[in-house]
Design goal:
elongated, homotetramer, alpha/beta, 14 helices, three-stranded mixed sheet, 9 strands
Chain lengths: 296, 296, 296, 296
């Protein structure tokens, strides 16, 4: 069996790689900071000195990186996978990046005879560890079929959105937008309740047990009720990165998104106030402050 | 057993009254348009000629009316329940009204020796018929205890928010705000997807099966994906009434709520465009139009 | 010559009354706190014990009051002018009130055989003292003609907006909205400049000397550049009162006004933070804080 | 006397170049479409085949181009001015571009021994023709002194904002933002007035003769009152380009600008509706439509 390349062993990538190993895949891993690769070496992974080296001709490479620039670098850069992946190779790209970057990379791969499959995920590091990720998928049919066993080893559900190279990324951005919108809405509702002397937790619990009994409202409702913003589950700074991808994608597609503008501003103001390392739910503090509530 | 008064036999009140009868309560019903009371007469309810007549000294009267003015009229008006309800009577007020109206009526009842219990509900007419309402509750402890059997006959869950006369109403307004915010957010997300050529229904389904698998996102997601705005489940005009209650409550409490402002505008513009009789989800049309999507 | 009634000797009313006296009018003045009337008594004004007493049958009464409730009280209340003003009297109403209140009072006057002329003003106390007010006018033609000499004694320009009872009030609200919008816009622009290390005053001066060389941008630009919010020229709390009139008027007329929503929120949040006694330009502090600027 | 290079003979550049010639400067002109250069040849300008050719070692080159990409191309591109301008040359850059582009080009010039002066302008083509531009200036002191005679030949006023390479560009973006904000505010105010049956032109005239008697409110007020959006004075599409520069600059500097977000959305939605070739004031149509006004 050809080894699978795996590039990017951060908070998300590391448990995903472990799940692939647990499912019997041989991995060739690469991470900018090599120290993070060592524990996987102990599980049998081959640690590579470059992205290029992790890819094998005609094989599959999974990437899970922090942003568009990092993904472009490991794909198109000097030590990137594009050349080594070669004919019929598949790049399984799971990072949250813009649809534009996805289209650009897909084109580069097609020119080189390889294929690009977009497969961004929903779920935090603990969901990654527990194989509970929800994965959005788009790309060429044959390539998608080929990576399916890997996806099943890493996630709980896979949702196919067709053949467009950036389609799955649009859906991923829609999802992050919906989460941010839910956070902002909950923050405003809880401020209204608190200002009337009503217990925040009682209100959050009520909604998350009745009409909004889903992971987003349950999870974020509890965090917001208790204002538990450190340590971050997802750092506000990264949330702003995603929000800026939403902004750029909406601007380019000419889609006015008023709530997206609002949450982008909240994230921006939070960073301006030095809150970039709190959880992204900490945008709530701005709502509380504007309502004259002392938030802690 | 003393008969229970029931005032307001609209789309919501009528099935709620039926459930009380089914649970064994004797009802004295009143509705402005008497025709609506007749089917209940067939089930044994006593049809009264005025609100006052529906109330019995020391008894319980349930009200389920369209707005604050109607509730004030049947309570404080010439033929209102305040005088007939008398000492130790309980007014179980289930309409969506402002916390201010609730406080005003509670005060009037206390002066008259009776009690006011706020118990606004979440759920549409079909949920009322199926006894699946979620009921928020606040008011004096003894009065709440006394109405509990009625609430259990009409709803699936009851959530106690303490003794404040308007507290449950604030929670109800929070809920309607959260629903409007979810509608607006979904509308924006679906516009972004559709503008990228992605099937609206596939996106709505994906979210409502994964991180947002709750009644609000499932139900409204399906309506928004298909743009099924007529006949209305909840008329946009009524949604605007509720939104204006949210606005007034937030303004008075000095709570800035940017998303609430936005949805209020959407409702207002929809009415200005003649869409008051569509479902309140039809605010989505403004989002679609602004994105240059032909919505139907 | 019949004396002219003048009710309301606050920061605006007092200098306006002085200008009428200086122009040769005999005044019968009333103010809730009588102390404020004494200086005018020294100039020959007759100090009255009630609003009713200040009005003379068939005469003219000027009112300049703090809000809708005060105006309704001195007009329709027990000691109000409606009865004493009598047949052919004219109520020259110069306060900033809602068009709805104007219509209501106009109707009451017509029933009583007297007339209501709306004449709200633009300008601060110093402009009132200097006869530099800009006055908006609407109401019945004959009544407007009759009050013209008074208006010319109090203002620099008079702008006739027809016969509608509340028309001039709508224009006045439009103006206050435009001022608030200019304040918010300047605050955002100056934040962008300051965050780039550019001197706020230099930017404000540049615009107010070139494309925006008008009183609003000159005056507010200077205040905002220096963040000179105390003592207030126009207290933030009063600005919120006007903003709420704009909100109510827009909501009733079904006119979505996104910028009006935004400034209303700014005022509300400022009050929630305890800034109600600063100048209304102090909404800028929220912009500065959100940008991470230390505002003094 | 060394000839001055002039690159970009569009609606703005052409009359600016004419004014330089009229003031006695010898010009070497370049324009992508050569036809536009011919009339200037008749006035003695030397028509060049490339940007590089228009620049002379140690001389001055004026650029007036449509966007950041065009400016980068004529500066850094293959046939760009950077190499030919050489030691001690000055690039007088008058286009509306981002401060980031300005900084990037300034750095490239300093490396090459030449200097970059930012001098964006306020004013439309007719103001350019009439030498009535207001010019913002920033850059190295000696270079600014050297270009002063040219600026005086093209504009009415010059405002120095110091030595920062992108400083003048920030001020220019602030100005375009303030204009957009004024357009939106006027549109909302006029909608409120029109919905109350008040003549739009009367309201616009009133404000532009009193507290807002400055070019922006006079000019745009008249256009908005009459809804005269074609032919465009400044095409909406170009306005969106500028708005996106504002968005990017604010995002990078972490300055939340809520009104800027709003107008950006208005421009975006207008383009989505096919209005890109109308005047940028045509964002008003969205306000009118949302208020249920038939706009034409």
């Amino acid at each position: 069996m050809t080894a699978v390349g795996f590039i990017g062993l951060g908070l998300m990538g590391e448990p995903m790689a472990r799940n692939l190993i647990a499912a019997g895949f041989k991995l060739r891993v690469f991470n900018r900071s090599l120290a993070k690769a060592e524990p996987l070496a102990g599980l049998g992974a081959v640690v590579c000195a470059s992205a290029a080296e992790a890819a094998q001709t005609g094989g599959i490479v999974v990437t899970m990186l922090a942003n568009d620039a990092a993904l472009e670098e490991v794909t198109l850069g000097a030590g990137g996978i594009l050349k080594t992946l070669g004919r019929d190779g598949v790049h399984l790209s799971m990072s949250t990046v813009s649809p534009e970057t996805a289209r650009k990379l897909a084109e580069a791969h097609e020119k080189a005879g390889s294929h690009y499959v977009a497969a961004p995920v929903f779920g935090r590091p603990d969901a990654a560890a527990a194989k509970e990720l929800n994965i959005c998928l788009s790309g060429p049919a044959a390539a998608k079929a080929r990576v399916k066993p890997l996806l099943e080893a890493m996630g709980r559900t896979v949702h196919d959105f067709g053949t467009g190279p950036g389609t799955a990324n649009v859906v991923k951005l829609c999802g992050n937008f919906l989460i941010l919108a839910a956070i902002e809405s909950l923050a405003e509702a809880l401020a209204l309740a608190e200002k009337h002397g009503i217990d925040r937790a009682a209100v959050a619990t009520f909604f998350s047990e009745t009409r909004f009994n889903c992971p987003v409202y349950k999870g974020y409702g509890a965090i917001l009720a208790a204002r538990r913003y450190a340590p971050p589950g997802f750092a506000l700074e990264l949330g702003y990165k995603d929000s800026q991808l939403i902004q750029a994608t909406a601007a380019k597609a000419r889609v006015p998104m008023a709530v997206a503008d609002l949450v982008d501003e909240r994230l921006r103001a939070s960073i301006a106030k030095g809150r970039q390392n709190l959880d992204w739910t900490a945008i709530e503090l701005l709502v509380a402050e504007a309502a004259g509530l002392s938030a802690g």
